[in-house]
Amino acid sequence: MKKLLIIFAALGLSGLIAAGLLGAYAVLIATPHLPSLEVVKDYRPKVPLRIFTNEGILIGEFGEERRNLTPINNFPMALKNAVIAIEDDRFYEHSGVDLQGFARALVANLSGRFNQGASTITMQVARNFFLSNEKKLSRKLYEILLAFKIEQNLSKDQILELYMNQIYLGQRSYGFASAARIYFGKNVADLTIAESAMLAGLPKAPSAYNPVVNFRRAKIRQEYILQRMRDLKYISPEQYATAMLEELFVRGLGREFELHAEFVSENARQLLIAMYGENVYQQGLNVYTTIKKVDQEASYSSLRKGIMDYDFKHGYRGPEGFVTVPNVAIDSKEMKRALDDALMDHPSSDEILAGVVLKSSINEVKVFISTGEVVVMQGEAVKFAKDALSPSAQPKMKISVGSIVRVMPKVGGGWQITQLPEVEGALISVDTNSGAILSMTGGFDFKRNQFNHAMMAERQPGSSFKPFLYAAGIEKGIMPRTIVNDGPLSFSGVETGGKAWEPKNYDGKMEGLMSVRTALAKSKNLVSVRIMRAIGPHYVQDFIQRFGFEPEKNPPYLTLALGAGSATPLQMSLGYSVFANGGYEIQPYLIDRIVDAKGNVLFQSSPNTVEEGAKRVLDARTAFVLDSLLQEVTKSGTAASARGRLKRSDIAGKTGTTNDSHDAWFAGYNPKVAAVVWVGFDKPRSLGATETGGGLALPIWINYMARALQGLPENSREIPSGVVLEDGDWVIPEFKEHAKYSNLTD
């Protein structure tokens, strides 16, 4: 009886309200109290700055509102039906205010069962465009009256289009097209019924039903929406059953874009701010970079693999932290909530996920991971952390119940214990003809460390600097067959610019007299110092400016022969490009073109290429001879593994290892692509007594080049006029005849 009275009261009250609203609308519709609808008729939302690869793959988006304006016909029917099913199932029947829905909500609220709203999609459009969310009667009245006005001026499809483009859906995304990409990495047209239902659950409370933050809650709401779609006959029972079983892959914050190019998009953003100022975030500019998808994928994966390989080799450092695990059932809500909370401060790093240990022994670990799964690892999968699983392990090292650990997918399936590395690295590659940056990975994980090591890390290049010294020597008459002594040396502090110095070879061995070609292939430090002493540090400091190196960061002392100055990976890639392209300076550039929201090209790059406009900075003969020396390094020297792995004869480069192995480098090229790899700690310390550029950086470079050069034919270099073969090696007679150096054999 009480329920019937509530229903009759609600129906009577809703009738009175309806009559009152219609009367109020009749009075107000002709008055200036309601705002003009021009803002919705001429809808021009803030559109963010978007960064793309050269092929048009989205890699970055910047702006307070992430939005992709989409016509109503481009939204899939399943998504439109999902939205209508949960937000306003009588959308195409009412005139802005759903009186039946209002009465239903009133009955529910008067019954005290739960809070139920009665806002239609049209009312939500009115609120989003013109009103605040304050809970006042006057604001609600205006919302209802505006809804009537909107319905009088726009078609239902126009209203739904506004709603689906304007509504906030979490993660700074506005509109379902943006949300489809952010949550699922898809174009909105490609959403499945299950994915559509999950996105349709977001408007009610984007923070509460965000699948990145709380997948379980989002899943419960998705299942309810699927039931509504089935009950309203928007989908068949078979489609409902299929959608309920579909496994959803939410991309989340860690994998927002198809391609890992965070350092690229951030660098592009900074360039755009310098060009257009802060309002660049609202103009809808589309920025196409020089980055190539294949190169960037290879750059990112190769650097990550190389760093992880290094980290595995140097042992487990212990758990990231410890939490108290509740003494309740593992599948209980209390347990899952506690574990979710514990992992909030330990975000994933791509494939490397955080987890809480639920059980551990010497040979087995059971872990709840951030995806919500419980995984069990045994044998080889836990071998990396076996010392930490020992009962006698030190407390800070020990893995026990409540330890926060890292896991990653294992080759062949399953999971294995791992850890986040402390070491950093960079890989950058450029087109040797134009200077276009083909790939840029400035560190292991942009979320952890935004410092772009590829562009900004000024480190000692070590032996990877020697080719520039040898190029200077060639123009002083030191040819590949010139004999130099690999014997002991000592210098006073006056000669070195510091302390007295007795340089050594990396391996501590001396081999006596040898050719320049052999010395560079074997990276003999003592030979490099003799060449530097013979031609003069000041001459070398001046000479290297041709390659873009800054003289003030490379002081004219004998230690410069061993790369004791500083350079960034980008500078090194440009310097090696001069050897690759036959002696031309190229200027690096990242922005290929900028297009405004209407499709107008605002900027188009026009680089000076080797064929047109580039400045010659090195004699073609010197470049040719030096290239032959660097090819020898990959044939018989410290980088000989490169030819075996790549099976190409047109590659060249040089390893680099600094004092105490603080930095490991490999700089190399094919005639079309120059790439440089650096690995080291942000706060310089030894990578390990046995770590070298050849063992650490070279494998990363090889893995990158294997993909970057795939399908490219080998290039043979044309012999410049003025270079001849003499006793089996290249000679530049003009330079040799005017040789300007002292004895290199003492």
From TrEMBL:
SUPFAM superfamilies: beta-lactamase/transpeptidase-like, Lysozyme-like. It comes from the Bacteria. It is found in: Cell inner membrane. It comes from Polynucleobacter kasalickyi. Residues 316-423 form the Penicillin-binding protein OB-like domain. It catalyses: [GlcNAc-(1->4)-Mur2Ac(oyl-L-Ala-gamma-D-Glu-L-Lys-D-Ala-D-Ala)](n)-di-trans,octa-cis-undecaprenyl diphosphate + beta-D-GlcNAc-(1->4)-Mur2Ac(oyl-L-Ala-gamma-D-Glu-L-Lys-D-Ala-D-Ala)-di-trans,octa-cis-undecaprenyl diphosphate = [GlcNAc-(1->4)-Mur2Ac(oyl-L-Ala-gamma-D-Glu-L-Lys-D-Ala-D-Ala)](n+1)-di-trans,octa-cis-undecaprenyl diphosphate + di-trans,octa-cis-undecaprenyl diphosphate + H(+); Preferential cleavage: (Ac)2-L-Lys-D-Ala-|-D-Ala. Also transpeptidation of peptidyl-alanyl moieties that are N-acyl substituents of D-alanine. Residues 58-229 form the Glycosyl transferase family domain. Residues 427-677 form the Penicillin-binding protein transpeptidase domain. Its EC number is 2.4.99.28, 3.4.16.4. Its main location: membrane. This is Penicillin-binding protein 1A. GO terms for biological process: cell wall organization; peptidoglycan biosynthetic process; proteolysis; regulation of cell shape; response to antibiotic. One of its GO terms (cellular component) is plasma membrane. Pathway: Glycan biosynthesis; Cell wall biogenesis; peptidoglycan biosynthesis.
